[in-house]
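Exercise 7b. Backbone tokens:
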């Protein structure tokens, strides 16, 4: 297969798309003359702009448009005449799109919701980091991807705008949000870390999505010193630029950790309901994970949940600011 047309389906969250970028790189290096398209949701599509490894971004608004949107995306995919479809996303919808694509080779996990939709089914290697699990899908095609570091392409102007928006001084980013409440450390803890960073001479930028305004406001309110609250005010690319320019990131197990891995930003990741062994730990060369390791109930799920099933939430409540600050000092050297 000299120059195939390849589609990668990843319609999950922002962090999942960032962690799929090593697959794009591996495929493009193996077939430099081939075409590579990425099927993602509209909210995550901007993060792929400017990547030399992605030739086309196809946005699929799976939460709106119903059956009409699904038929549209199937027609679009079939019309592209892809030779190979790779789906790190394990949903029924992604498997159905792969099956209806008309591609001769359709690669997915054995653990996918509909593995029979794929012509080649790969065991999802749980012992690897998530980037390695995704790269395992390429291995069945004879593609070896040895670099797990994610890719995000930012311009000098975007990075400069991030520095300017943060006040032009050295700053740290605190990201207290997560889609899942059991992955969120308490606001008072993040506030204590923010005050410590201010005492070290860094401005503090608090980031989060539109739905995280209350979480971020609670952190800012609990701080004794001033901070900039950017919750609901950044695009995915603006968030990436802030993380890229930050002196350090302190965050829950969430997308900013994976953005920091792309830029090798020093990172302190707080884990509660989930554990790094599940494959989503930081990859930055200077990074640390802070967690309550002695709890037998951890992890309580693959992605966290809405509430603590044991009703004590000790994985986060027992985590002290002193532990996170100690990890922060070690990472910052």
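Sequence design result:
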């Amino acid at each position: 297969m000299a120059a195939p047309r390849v589609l990668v389906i990843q319609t999950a969250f922002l962090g999942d798309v960032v962690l799929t970028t090593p697959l794009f790189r591996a495929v493009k290096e193996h077939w430099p003359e081939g075409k590579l398209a990425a099927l993602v949701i509209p909210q995550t599509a901007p993060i792929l702009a400017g990547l030399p490894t992605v030739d086309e971004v196809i946005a699929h608004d799976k939460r709106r448009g119903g059956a009409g949107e699904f038929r549209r995306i199937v027609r679009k995919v079939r019309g592209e005449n892809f030779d190979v479809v790779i789906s790190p996303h394990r949903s029924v919808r992604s498997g159905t799109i792969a099956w209806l694509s008309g591609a001769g080779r359709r690669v997915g996990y054995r653990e996918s919701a509909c593995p029979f939709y794929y012509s080649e089914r790969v065991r999802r290697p749980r012992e690897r980091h998530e980037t390695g699990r995704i790269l395992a899908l390429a291995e069945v095609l004879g593609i070896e991807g040895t670099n797990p570091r994610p890719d995000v392409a930012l311009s000098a102007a975007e990075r400069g705008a991030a520095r300017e928006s943060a006040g032009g001084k050295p700053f740290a980013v605190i990201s207290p949000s997560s889609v899942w409440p059991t992955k969120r450390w308490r606001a008072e803890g993040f506030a204590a870390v923010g005050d410590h960073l201010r005492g070290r001479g860094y401005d503090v930028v608090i980031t989060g999505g539109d739905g995280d305004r209350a979480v971020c406001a609670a952190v800012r309110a609990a701080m004794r010193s001033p901070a900039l609250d950017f919750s609901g005010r950044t695009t995915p690319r603006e968030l990436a630029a802030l993380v890229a320019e930050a002196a350090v990131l302190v965050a829950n197990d969430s997308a900013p950790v994976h953005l920091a891995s792309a830029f090798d930003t020093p990172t302190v990741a707080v884990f509660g309901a989930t554990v790094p062994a599940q494959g989503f730990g930081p990859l930055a060369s200077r990074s640390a994970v802070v967690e309550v390791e002695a709890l037998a109930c951890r992890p309580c799920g693959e992605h966290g949940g809405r509430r603590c099933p044991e009703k004590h939430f000790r994985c986060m409540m027992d985590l002290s600011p002193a532990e996170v600050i100690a990890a922060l000092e070690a990472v910052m050297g």
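Instructor comment: The CA atoms of residues 115 and 333 lie 47 Å apart. The longest strand covers residues 35-40.
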